[in-house]
């Protein structure tokens, strides 16, 4: 019975961490306003950090960029218990001054 109680508690904490991370991802600025750099904050007693970096890959030619450039978005969320959830994703950013 104690194992079930611990398991249920751990599952509840994990669910809270995932839901908080979803809320943070949903609340990120749209692609036109999301610029390289770091954002930090706290939401529902969870500390979070979002790093936006240029996306580097061998199949992207930096000499011939198009109007859309990929950005790596790294989201780290730490629960009050210390558990961390990290999500790495890519967003397209419209380069200023390029034709649509």
Write the layout of secondary structure elements.
Blueprint lengths: L1 H25 L10 E7 L2 E9 L13 E11 L5 E11 L6
Antiparallel strand pairs: 1-2, 2-3, 3-4
Order of helices and strands: HEEEE
For the sheet with most strands, the description reads:
4 strands, antiparallel
Strand arrangement across the biggest beta sheet: 1-2-3-4
Q: What is the typical, i.e. mean, pLDDT?
A: 83
Which range best describes the helical content: under 10%, 10-25%, 25-40%, 40-55%, 55-70% or over 70%?
25-40%
Describe this protein with a few key phrases.
1 helix; four-stranded antiparallel sheet; 100 residues; alpha+beta; 25% helix
Question: How is this structure best described in words?
Answer:
With 100 residues, this protein is of the alpha+beta class. The chain has one helix at residues 2-26; strands at residues 37-43, 46-54, 68-78, 84-94. A four-stranded antiparallel sheet has the order 1-2-3-4, with helices on one face. A hairpin with a 5-residue loop joins strand 3 (68-78) and strand 4 (84-94). The model has no long low-confidence stretch (mean pLDDT 83).
Please give a quick description of this structure.
This protein is an alpha+beta fold and 100 residues long.
């Amino acid at each position: 019975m104690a194992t079930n109680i611990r398991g249920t508690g751990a599952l509840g904490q994990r669910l809270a961490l995932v839901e908080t991370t979803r809320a943070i991802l949903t609340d990120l600025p749209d692609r036109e306003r999301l610029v390289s750099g770091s954002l930090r904050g706290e939401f529902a007693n969870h500390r979070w950090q979002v790093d936006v970096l240029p996306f580097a890959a061998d199949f992207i030619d930096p000499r011939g960029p198009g109007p859309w450039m990929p950005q790596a978005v790294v989201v780290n969320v730490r629960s009050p218990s210390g558990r961390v959830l990290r999500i790495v994703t890519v967003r397209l950013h419209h380069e200023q001054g390029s034709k649509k």
